Amino acid sequence: MAADKALRGYLNILAGKNRPRFKTADLSARAERAESLLAACELCEHKCLVDRNAGELGECKVGTGMSVASAFDHLGEEPFFVPSFTIFFRSCTFHCQFCQNWDISQVAEQELTPNMSETALARHIDAHAYCKNVNFVGGEPTPYLPFILRTLTDVRADIPVIWNSNFYMSEQSMDILAGTVDVYLSDFKYGNDACAERLSGIKNYWRIVKRNHQLAFNDAEVVIRHLILPGHLDCCTKPILRHIADNMGEDVVVNLMDQYRPCYNAAGFPELTGRITADEFRQAVKYAEQLGLNFII
C-alpha cells in the first residue's frame, strides 16, 4: 500500500484536488499564540521557561530569529516526497550522541545568529514551488515554530507542508500546529525512557512521543521513520513497531531505516560503534510484516 492510502490527502494536493491546509488556517492567530510562548518558553517538553524575547536562552539555544543551515531540493527523502524543498534549521532539542547531523544540531549559541527573515524564506519557498512539498526540519524545527508560521503567512504557492520532527513538542505547540500541517514526518527513536535519556539526554520520552504521535495521527497524515540502532532491536525497535500497530495500524507509513553509522560521540557507547547486522534488519522487517504494518525499507 505504501503511500497510496495512508497519504491520500497529500497526494490529492499534488494532483491539484485539494489546497494545502495552511492556506485555510488562521496563521496570524496561531503565530501570535506561538509567540506568546516565547516569554516563558515551552514550545518543547523541556519547558525551559526562559524569556527568549529578552535574549534568554534555553536548552535549544535558539533566540529571537531563524538560523537556517541550508535549504535545497532534497532527493534523498522517501520516494513519494521527492523532490522535497528541505529547510534545515540549526540546533535541536535533543543531544543524540550518534547524530548524523551533529554539525548543525549540536551547536554553540554563538553559531545561532539569525540569518534569514520570514519574508526572505517565504520567497525562497515560492521560488521552489515546483517541489512536491516544503519540509521543515533541522536539527529540529520546534524552537522556530513562531517564525515558521509567520513565514507561511507570506507564502504564495500552494505547496504541501511537512513537519519533520523528533516529536518532543509540547501539547501547546501540537495544538498550534493542528490544521496547518499536511504530513507529520516523525523520527521515532526509542521504545523506552532509559535509552532516550542515556543516548539523547531526554526525560519522559516514551510518554511524550507516544502522545504526540496520537495527536498528529488525529490531525493529519503521518509518516514515521525509525532508524534501527545496533543492539536495540528488543528494547526500541519492537516496542515502537508494536505501538504503531496497536494505535495507528496501516493508516501510517513506516520507514524502517538501516543506514545507521557511527557518528559524533557514538564511540563512547559500545553497542553503537558498528552498523546493524543483516540479521537485525531481517528481524525488524519480519516483525513489521507480522504486525501488518504499512512499511517501506
Q: How many strands appear in the DSSP assignment?
A: 8
N- and C-termini, Cα separation: 13 Å
Q: Please state the structural category.
A: alpha/beta
**Over the alpha carbons, how many angstroms does the gyration radius reach?**
18 Å
pLDDT averaged over residues: 97
Number of domains: 1
> What is the tally of helical segments?
11
The H/E string reads HHHEEHHEHEHEHHEHEHE
Percentage of residues in helical conformation: 25-40%
As laid out across the biggest beta sheet, the strand order is 1-2-3-4-5-6-7-8
Can you tell me the overall shape? globular
State the CATH class. Alpha Beta
Poorly predicted runs: none
The main pleated sheet reads as: 8 strands, mixed
Describe this structure in words.
- This protein is α/β, with parallel strands linked by helices and 297 residues long.
- It has a single domain (3-296), classed as Aldolase class I (TIM Barrel).
- 35% of the residues lie in helices and 14% in strands.
- It contains eleven helices and eight strands.
- It has helices at 3-6, 8-14, 27-36, 102-105, 118-127, 145-153, 171-177, 193-200, 205-219, 233-247, 278-291; strands at 68-74, 84-89, 134-137, 161-165, 183-187, 221-227, 253-257, 295-296.
- The chain has an eight-stranded mixed beta sheet, sandwiched between helices.
- β7 (253-257), α11 and β8 form a beta-alpha-beta unit.
- It is globular and about 50 Å long.
